[in-house]
Amino acid sequence: MQVKLLRALQEREIRRVGENKSRKVDVRIVAATNRDLALGVVDGNFRQDLYYRLKVVELHVPPLRERRDDILPLARVLLADAALRMKRKISGLAPAAADRLLRYEWPGNVRELENAMERAAALARASRVELDDLSEEIRLALPKPAAISGTVRPLDEVEKEYILATLDLNAGNQTQTAEQLQIGSATLYRKLKSYGMIGSKRPPSTEGQSTSS
């Protein structure tokens, strides 16, 4: 197939299936790939002559995680398109939902964002997409360390926000929250107490206890 494609590009002619003569064509070729073709040439999986024939004007599009300014505009367009297809009246994204979209790494790039917006459009219970309408991996996305005026948010502040968000996701269930965060229930209790979320008197613990006189 690579040989045939190279001939079509080089000679600017094709042969239709079932015909015994070639036809001249006047076309512009736009090729896209998510693979490293140069590495494919080295490995012997991609023809070098075809690689250089395609590589006339090369444009590199960074992954979505490196184009944070594009996430929300793309999300709104994809959400509107999904809502139109499903005949749902969705006006947009709630601030909390938009914030999580910006935090997420998007390993699947735009395709994953499109699927996320389709899911949100299908599950939204109100006129806009709320945080609960997003998938679990997006809801649990860690905050991105953004430098503002030359400063970075303290780790304790980021940790507190993440712990409270997870607790809220579990409807206040401390046991389930501790399990998801992979920390002990006593550790979670101490942190919540330091955040002012729990009174000074601790309830009886079921963990190992010691007495002293």
Provide a brief overview of the structure.
The chain has helices at 2-11, 37-43, 48-54, 68-86, 95-103, 109-123, 136-139, 155-169, 174-181, 185-194, and strands spanning 13-14, 23-24. It is mainly alpha-helical and 213 residues long.
Describe the structure.
This protein is mostly helical. The protein has three domains: 2-54, no CATH class; 64-139, Helicase, Ruva Protein, domain 3; 155-194, Arc Repressor Mutant, subunit A (Orthogonal Bundle), CATH 1.10.10.60. 49% of the residues lie in helices and 2% in strands. It contains ten helices and two strands. A two-stranded antiparallel sheet has the order 1-2. Strand 1 (13-14) and strand 2 (23-24) form a beta hairpin. The chain is elongated and about 85 Å long.
Domain tally: 3
Report the radius of gyration as a whole number of Å. Answer: 27 Å
Mean pLDDT: 84
What portion of residues is helical? 40-55%
- The unreliable regions are 200-213
Helix and strand content put the structural class at mainly alpha
What share of the residues does DSSP label as strand, in percent? under 5%
> Which CATH class of the largest domain applies here?
Mainly Alpha
Strand order within the widest sheet?
1-2
Shape: elongated
**SSE run:** HEEHHHHHHHHH
How many strands in all?
2
Question: First CA to last CA: what distance?
Answer: 85 Å
Sheet bearing the most strands, described?
2 strands, antiparallel
CATH architecture of the largest domain: Orthogonal Bundle
